[in-house]
Amino acid sequence: MSAVRTVLGDIRPEELGVCDAHDHLFLRSPRLPGQELDDTSAAQAELEAFRAAGGSAVVQWTPYGMGRRAAGLPPLSRATGVHLVGATGLHQAAHYEPELVDGLRGRLAEVFVCELTEGIGTSGVRAGLIKVAGGFHALDAHTRWTMTAAAEAHHATGAPIAVHLELGTGALDVLDLLCDALGVPGHRVILGHLNRSPDPVTQRQAAESGCWLAFDGPSRAHHATDWRMPQAVRDLAEAGYGDRLLLGGDTVVAGARSVDGGPGMPYLLRRVRPLLAAAVGAELVDRILTEHPGQAFAVDWK
């Protein structure tokens, strides 16, 4: 039976409820010095604000080596009543010290599989997805290595693969590699940030593969998200791809949290939801927030 693997255990897809399909509670990177998401109290307050806005599930895409705090996720889920899904995977090389990456050579897929099936470190928390990343209009050697390992881990477990697209670019190259070359079914791939490069032709071509398009980071107006999102969602729906969409907040720095003065997770429901409902109708938006995440992240776990 298909199940979504949360930090408290597997649940039925319909139990997720209203879901932020791409966000972060904890994250650190040398590319974001001094802006780390590392405050447990702030993370709990943000989840409580999201819950108060009508949310009931958050998928955290923070991968290996970027301060996931896996052991801290179950207490947060219990305290707030919000389902949490954690990730394994590996981001771009720039987010790590070279020694960490070198230490994973020859065993990356094994690490992914272990974190999906046995648990992250000693926490016992099992990941529910694999997060990898492309580059700007290109797939470098690091990307090909991580995506090959992700595909191997997918074939071993069934886990979905979520992909950071740098500034929304490279979607078709990613699909050529993951789906065509490495045999990952399109519906097991989630493309993040595709909306940051608002090319309707590429968006439709990506949707044709059967993959999921995650319109995430809606508060980042400088990434051409908020003001173009309604039209993009409408165009995809009218082309027959309304059933391929997900929504997420992608909060990556402390100042972006609602409890620290930013839009944060509640913005997805407080502002984006009615904005999209005016463009495509509340019924579709409700499905994007509830049914679609269950379909995208539910797996017949091997």
Automatic annotation (TrEMBL):
Zn(2+) 1 binds at H22, H24, K131, D250. It comes from the Bacteria. Binds 2 divalent metal cations per subunit. Keywords: Hydrolase, Metal-binding. Signal peptide: none annotated. Zn(2+) 2 binds at K131, H164, H193. PROSITE patterns: PHOSPHOTRIESTERASE_2. Its cofactor is a divalent metal cation. The modification N6-carboxylysine is found at K131. GO terms for molecular function: hydrolase activity; zinc ion binding. InterPro entries: Metal_Hydrolase, Phosphotriesterase. Pfam families: PTE. Belongs to the metallo-dependent hydrolases superfamily. Phosphotriesterase family. This is Phosphotriesterase. The lineage of its organism: Bacteria, Bacillati, Actinomycetota, Actinomycetes, Kitasatosporales.
